[in-house]
Every structure is written in C-alpha cells, then in structure tokens.
Give the backbone structure.
Amino acid sequence: MRVLIADGDIPFLGMLQSFLRDGGHEIEVAADGLGCRSVLRDFVPEVLVIERDLLWGGSDGVLAVMRDDPDLVEVPVILITNRRGDVRPDWCAIPPIAGSLQKPFRLSALLRDAAAAIQQRQANGCGLAQCQTEESVHQGEFAGRPAVLSHR
C-alpha cells in the first residue's frame, strides 16, 4: 500500500512511518501542509492519512489542491483528529474523505481503515469511498506506548 502521512507530531509521525514501513508499505511523510503538498507533486498515494489541524496550509488546503488535481481527486483521505467532536458528518460528504481516526487510536485500526478505503475505491471503479460512521473513530493502544502492536 502506498501511503502519505501528514502530521505535525514528529514522534507520532516517525512511529507511524516505522510501523507501516516495517509492514512492507511504501510510505512518504510530511510534517505540515506545505510539505504534504510538495510530496503530492511526486508521490501519488493510494491513501492519504492527514492530521485535521495540520500547520502551514492545513488539511483543508491540501484537500483543496487534491480536488483540483485529476491524479489526486480520487485518493481516499483518512483524517486524524485530536479531540472528540472534531469528526463532523458534513466532512464526510465532501470527497475525498473516506474516514477518520481520533488520537489515540490503534495502529491496526489505521491499517484496516486504509485498506478498506482503497478497496472501496477499487470496487467503485473510479468512485470515492463512502465516509465511515462514528464507528470509525477509534481510541486505544497508542497513548505513548511502543509501536509493537499486533494486527487484528
């Protein structure tokens, strides 16, 4: 799976990068909105995992750029949020949002949601994945613990 992760929390970003790369996935990372937009020029991910409150351009700026690029408009996006209530149903109606995860979340939930978003996009041919409900907002294992997690 080709994944771009954009999150301003550098230790968290590094942990996600290591976890996914160790799982055999192709990973690119960005620590802010401008960096994410720069990476997207040369790397078209199968899924973008992006922090909702990303600095310097924010997730809204990145999504606006993606909506205007025919190569990126259908890339599913999973929003990472920091607070309960940051997940609003109206975000899900705006492509290409495929789901969201609230920190802390299980890394296995990220894998599951990313794979489901990619699979839904492929099943639809060219359509975007439907937004997942509140059930896609997970709390759990990370909470500062080591990245040694089992896949469910």
The domain at 2-136 is CATH 3.40.50.2300 (Rossmann fold). The longest helix spans residues 107-123. Residues 7 and 13 are 6 Å apart (CA to CA). The chain has a mean pLDDT of 79.
